[in-house]
Design brief:
Elements (H helix, E strand, L loop, with lengths): L8 H4 L13 H6 L41 H24 L3 H5 L4 E10 L8 E7 L11 H22 L3 E7 L9 H16 L2 H8 L3 E11 L3 E12 L2 H9 L1 H13 L32 E5 L4 H12 L2 H8 L3 H6 L3 E2 L1 H13 L5 H17 L5 E3 L3 H4 L8 H6 L10 E6 L1 H5 L6 H14 L5 H11 L5 E2 H11 L10 H14 L1
Antiparallel strand pairs: 1-2, 1-9, 3-5, 3-6, 4-5, 4-7, 4-8, 9-10
Helix pairs in contact: 3-13, 3-18, 5-10, 6-9, 11-13, 13-14, 18-19, 20-21
């Protein structure tokens, strides 16, 4: 990806920086920057040279910038650590992804770029976030968009299960897999899995259950292992109307498994293989042939009255992406050698870690190829599919497409975010593309630990390190008021709004 040109010749010759390196020196660089311009207006903070205030209570007229309670240093460190892992993964994707939307996610402006902060009412450090940047909406390949999409989908599934329970219904959790030898192309496996699923639903056993009122929701999951290669498999949440129908599904489970075995076997007409009465394989499968076995298929009842049991299956359907990212952040050797299989995001985290440390052995090269295979095979596919009419029957509203869910900032029931600073779209474009993720990370850290008195001057000092201008406080609000660029802006303080109005009038 090319680097946008700037008006400053020095910025074009500036050596490339990598996300995650020398991150601990951010505070020191900004604190010692003697050339940082200090504003004399009240809303721009004081002129104290100290960059980072002590982690303690601060009092300021702007309540959304003050920290009302002791800072949870452990929680703040964990938040920074989790965000650093995602930033590292996104930095790799911005440079190496085969998907153009993923390459642009989080670094290309769609309007004014807002830096927003909020403080939990119970106290602690501020929470920062950005708005006004493009989102890719990829549930498969983006470690930033996928968690937001997954949480929204999980909430909808949980709401549907609770509504189903309220009507006296029951639920079952079904897992269907197929076996194959290592080396079979992931795209081929995925296509055969979906064709086999559609074939199963056209067979007599499933048609009979449909007549009994059975409905389903299916989800796709995939892992990779040394022994078997890629292993896509299918989960289905089966909604049954009453206890007698649930017993009927359990009674017919062996028939469903037989139908599934035959549906998978139909994808290999050249094999001419034989099964015993129990569905066990009699003849070995040739290389490249997909088949299903009895032991690998599972059906479990879901206890809708137990929140823990309910949450376990909801998470399985909608992907526990944050947990996967956390697992992928462990040491590279641990993630490969000590675990039998890995998820795609674990592979990405390992590749990003190796990229930051300039590791480039055969193992890393293989994982890069695996991630490319995953991007190619998963692109354009749906993760979760509801049976036709099921959402309407449960009284659920459409939560939107993956792209729509990813574009909505994550809201907190306890934290109200306010836009305190930002870049114009043109100014943001002046930041070299490879440095945008690092700039975002530094600004977020400063916004979360600085005192209210030093926040604005510290934010501007960070932006100056990247040779761009950051508007803060009433200057930012005035810009939004003058140019009508407030479509991404949240609620401002009354003092800031009044100051912006007076400033805009004086400039007319």
């Amino acid at each position: 990806m090319g680097i946008n040109a700037t008006n400053d010749e020095q910025s074009r010759t500036r050596p490339r920086q990598r996300v995650g390196r020398n991150r601990g020196a951010v505070d020191e660089r900004v604190a010692t920057r003697k050339g940082a311009k200090r504003s004399e207006s009240a809303d721009q903070g004081s002129t104290t040279p100290r960059h980072v205030a002590p982690l303690e209570n601060t009092r300021n007229s702007e309540s959304h910038l003050s920290i009302p309670g002791p800072v949870d240093e452990a929680g703040l460190a964990q938040r920074w650590s989790d965000r650093a892992v995602r930033t590292s993964m996104m930095d790799y994707l911005h440079r190496r992804s085969s998907l153009s939307r993923v390459q642009q996610c989080g670094i290309v402006a769609v309007g004014p770029v807002h830096l927003e902060v909020g403080v939990p009412p119970e106290g602690g450090s501020r929470v920062g976030r950005f708005r006004g940047l493009k989102t890719c909406g990829s549930v498969w390949a983006c470690p930033v968009c996928a968690p937001k999409i997954g949480r929204a989908r999980a909430d909808q599934i949980r709401e549907g299960l609770l509504a189903h329970r309220g009507r006296g219904g029951y639920a079952l959790f079904m897992t269907l897999t197929m076996h194959h030898r290592a080396g079979v192309d992931l795209q081929e496996l995925w296509d055969d899995l979906m064709i086999s699923w559609r074939s199963l639903k056209q067979r007599s056993t499933w048609k009979y259950l449909r007549q009994r009122g059975v409905r389903d929701l299916r989800s796709i999951e995939a892992t990779w292992s040394e022994q078997h290669g890629w292993h896509p498999h299918l989960h289905a949440l089966v909604f049954v109307p009453d206890a007698s129908t649930q017993m009927e599904v359990l009674r017919l489970w062996s028939s469903l498994v037989q139908d599934w075995i035959r549906a998978v076997d139909a994808r290999n007409p050249q094999s001419n293989r034989r099964f015993s009465r129990t569905g066990a394989r009699i003849e070995p499968a040739p290389r490249g042939v997909k088949y299903a076995g009895v032991k690998a298929q599972h059906l479990k009842t879901v206890n809708l009255d137990d929140p823990a049991d309910l949450g376990q299956y909801v998470t399985k359907l909608a992907w526990d992406v944050p947990a996967e990212i956390a697992l992928g952040a462990v040491k590279y050797a641990m993630s490969v050698g000590d675990r039998e299989s890995r998820t795609p995001f674990e592979i990405l985290a390992a590749v990003a870690t190796a990229d930051r440390t300039d590791r480039d052995d055969a193992q890393v090269q293989r994982d890069r190829l695996l991630w490319y295979q995953w991007e190619r095979a998963s692109h354009g596919r749906r993760q979760i599919t509801w049976c036709h009419g099921l959402q309407k029957d449960l009284g659920l509203t459409d939560v939107g497409s993956d792209e729509e869910l990813a574009s909505v900032p994550e809201e907190s029931e306890q934290v109200v975010f306010r836009s305190v600073a930002g870049f114009t779209k043109h100014e943001w474009s002046r930041v070299p593309v490879p440095l945008r993720a690092a700039l975002k990370e530094e600004l977020l850290r400063v916004s979360e630990i600085c005192s209210a008195e030093t926040l604005f001057v510290s934010l501007r000092a960070v932006a100056a390190q990247y040779r761009v201008s950051l508007l803060t406080g009433s200057s930012w609000t005035a810009h939004l008021d003058l140019h009508g660029d407030d479509q991404f802006c949240t609620v401002h303080d009354v003092s800031n709004i009044v100051a912006a109005v007076h400033l805009s009038k004086s400039m007319r």
